[in-house]
Every structure is written in C-alpha cells, then in structure tokens.
Amino acid sequence: MHGLQAGLSDPRRHSGDADRRGKPPGRRRKRKRASLIGAFAKILALVPARALGALGAGIGRAAWLVDKRHRAIARRNLARAFPELGWHARERIGREAFAELGRSVMELAHVYTKPKDWLMARIDLVGHGRVIEALTARRGAILCAAHHGNWELGALAFSMLGWPIHIPYRPLNQRQLDAWVLAARTRFGARFHPRDGAARALLKALREGEAVALMVDQHITGEPVPFFGHLALTTTLPALLHQRTGAPLFGVMLMRNGKSFRFRLVFWPIEAPKGASPVEIMRIVSDEFARRIRKKPEDWLWAHQRWAWIERMSPEAAEAVHGIP
Asked: pLDDT tens digit string along 237-259?
C-alpha cells in the first residue's frame, strides 16, 4: 500500500520528468545551474583580475545606458547628495558607479575562488590595530561597513585576518546558488547568520569577545537618520549592540586603488557620546560614511534606493529632485 500511495502521489514517478530518486526536474535544474555557475567562476578566475574588472566596467557602463530604472534611481540619489554639482558631473559619477559595480561583480570570480594569500597580497590594512586590541582584550568589536568598492572582498578580509567574525545576511532565493555563495563567503571561517533572527547570535558573539560586521548604508527597517542631508531609514542595530555589550564601534571601508585589483581596507574608531541615543549614534556613523564617500563617490552603490522612505512619505520627491526626473 505504501508503494502504491507513493506512486499515486507523484504521477511523474514512472515518466521522464523525474529522476530515479524521484527528485523533481526543477530541483535538478537548479542544482545543475548552481554547479555550472561555480565551474564558470573558476574558469573566469583564469583571466587576470584587472582584465576581468575592465570587462565588468564596460558591462556596467553599458548598463547605465540601457537600465532606465536603476539609472533613474542613481540620478535622484546623486541629485540629493550633490545638489551643488552640475548635470554632467553627476552623470559622470553615476556612469562610473555602474562601472564600479560591474567591475566588482566580475571580480567575484577571484574573490570567491582564490586562496587567502593571493587575496591578502592585494589588500593594504590601515587603522586595524585598535580592532585587534579590542579582540585581544575580549571586548568584542562592532564593524560598521558600506557598499563601497568590492564590498564582498572587504567582508572576506575579516576572516582572512583570522578574526572571529559574525555577519548577518539575506539568503538568496535560489537555494543551491545560495549554498555555493555561502560556502565561498565562509571558507576562511566567517560565520554568516540569516538576517531574520540574527540579532541574538550577534549579541552572543559580542559577549564572547568576538566581532560582528553590519552594513549601515541600506534602506532597511530602522529609524530615519540623515544621510547626505536627507532622512533615510537606517538600522540602529550597531548602536543597540554597543549599548548592550560595551563593545567598541568601528567604521570600515574598502578603498580601491585606481581601477586595479588592489585595495586599502581602512578602519577608524567611532566615538559614541555618553548618553547618546541609538539614533544619535547612527547619525555620527552616517555622517562619517557620507564624508568618506564624498572623496570617491563613484565607488558607492548609487543605484540602491537609499532614500526610499522619504520618497514614499513625499511621492513628489520620487518624481523630481532638484529638477531630475
């Protein structure tokens, strides 16, 4: 009876639509696709990183021409952040930001497959001594990061340095691909936690003297905090974790040297005034990131809807910002 029921429950059992183990063809296709992506990444990694990055930059500049939706988002964002700049200056930043994104995406073939020594030889560290001191003293460390340059390499660097690092993330919809990406991200010891429910794991890690890294420049559930002079929903989790554990706050950004596959990973301490609220602390964090992004704005992710909250609150803001459609 059990066998009969099993056969009746899956009409594909004796057809060509399922394999011998009864796995649906959709799952087989997804697993095969993820395997092909992994193999393709290894093949791409045979191409020198600079050449691969140049190819990605070209793809990014082409995307600026054809991707009207994200180009419009970038234009609105740039108009908010740089009202003092002329049209052509903002267009150049937007176009080169798309180029940087394309460059970083193509470089993932190296980031996700190359050994630690090869990757770390291309990163110069600046200001990381105080982070090491905090971790050595078992005080923990809260690293606030941004989508600047090749941020995947920046996140990977923490574990390549041997730091006990915990990072929240949003799993990809395609499970097999997510498993492959997660394996690449964690291959040097980093601990990634699904974003929903990650706060408890991060709190535990800090109390054990370990480090956590959090992106602070995304439109995400949080509180309105000024960023480039305009309110944007901002996570207050770094500030809350700091207040709960006493772990010191640090900012960190991966800065690309020119257009090469060489970088500076820059750390700096963030001083939270005694008695400051989480929103006040995150304003300090946001102001510091805005100041640093201004130095090389083309390396930041302008195509992200960072100010989506204010556009929803004021629909006309989505239609025109400083005259930009």
From this structure: 999 999 999 999 999 999 999 99
